Amino acid sequence: MARMHLPFPSRPFLRLLLVVAAAAPMCEAAVPAIIVFGDSSVDAGNNNVISTVLKSNFQPYGRDFFGGRPTGRFCNGRIPPDFISEAFGLKPAVPAYLDPAYSIKDFATGVCFASAGTGYDNATSNVLNVIPMWKEIEYYKEYQQKLQAYLGEERANFILSEALYLVCVGTNDFLENYYSSLPGGRQSQFTVRQYEDFLVGLATEFVTELYSLGVRKVSLTGLIPMGCLPLERTTNFFGHNECVQDYNNVAMEFNGKLRKAVARMNRRLPGLRMVLSEPYDLFLQMIKKPSSFGDVRADRG
C-alpha cells in the first residue's frame, strides 16, 4: 500500500512564492494568464473528479478559502498559483480544468491541470491512479482549442504565448515511487543517481513538448527538503524523528542537475525564458528556525 504524502505545510510555501510574486506589478497584469502543471502543491481540485483515493474535498481543507469550503486544494486556503495570479493582477484563484463549475470563460486568465500524487515518471501516477503528466499536456492541447474558439485565434495565441507557465512536480517520483515498497518499483531498475538522471530527462522532454506547443515563459520548481516532510520525520523512528538526510541529499543533487538542464534548454530553444525556482534553502531555514517565520514548530503537518 502506498503512503499518501500530503504537501508540506502550506503557509511557508505560500510565503516563499509571495516573495517571488511581489515583484509583479499590482496595478496591471504583467502576463495575461497563469497556466499550471504539476502535483498536490499546485492542484486546484482536478483530483475531485477522477477515480482516486487522493482527494482533499473535505474539511478541514479549505477552511480559510473563500466561503470556508474545501475545493480540492491540498491546503487550508489558497495555494501558490492563486497568490501568484493575484500578485500579477489577475484573478485571486486559478480554477481547476476538470471542475465542472467552470467554463472556458473562467479559464481565459488562468487554468490548472495539476493532479495531486503525479510525477514526471508515468509510473508514479499509477501508484494512486492520478493524472500523468502526459495527460496534463493533452488537457492543455484541448484547452488551446477551446480558447481559440472562444476568443479567436489571434487573441488566444497571444495569451498562450505570453502566459506564465508554472511546473511544480518531482517529490512524488521519489517518495511514492522510488523509495516506496511497491514490488517491481524503480529502485529495482535504477540506482538513485540513475533515477535522478532519468527524471531530468523526462523534465526536459516535458518542457520541450510545451515549447513545441508555443509555450515560452516557464517557471520550473525544484525539490524541497523532502526528507523533512512530516510523514518522513514521523516514520524515521531510528533517526529520532529528525529529517531523513539521505532524501534531502537526493533533493539537492536533483536540483543541481535540473539547474543545468534549465540552462541547456534556455540555450537550445530560441525564445524560451525559463527560470528554476529553488525553494530548498528557504524551506530549510523555515524548518530550522520556524519562529523567524511566525511559526511555533515545523515538524507537524
From TrEMBL:
GO terms for molecular function: hydrolase activity, acting on ester bonds. Residues 1-29 form the signal peptide. It holds the Pfam family Lipase_GDSL. Gene3D superfamilies: SGNH hydrolase. Keywords: Signal. Belongs to the 'GDSL' lipolytic enzyme family. PANTHER family: GDSL ESTERASE/LIPASE EXL3, OS09G0132900 PROTEIN. This is SGNH hydrolase-type esterase domain-containing protein. It comes from Eucalyptus grandis. The lineage of its organism: Eukaryota, Viridiplantae, Streptophyta, Embryophyta, Tracheophyta.
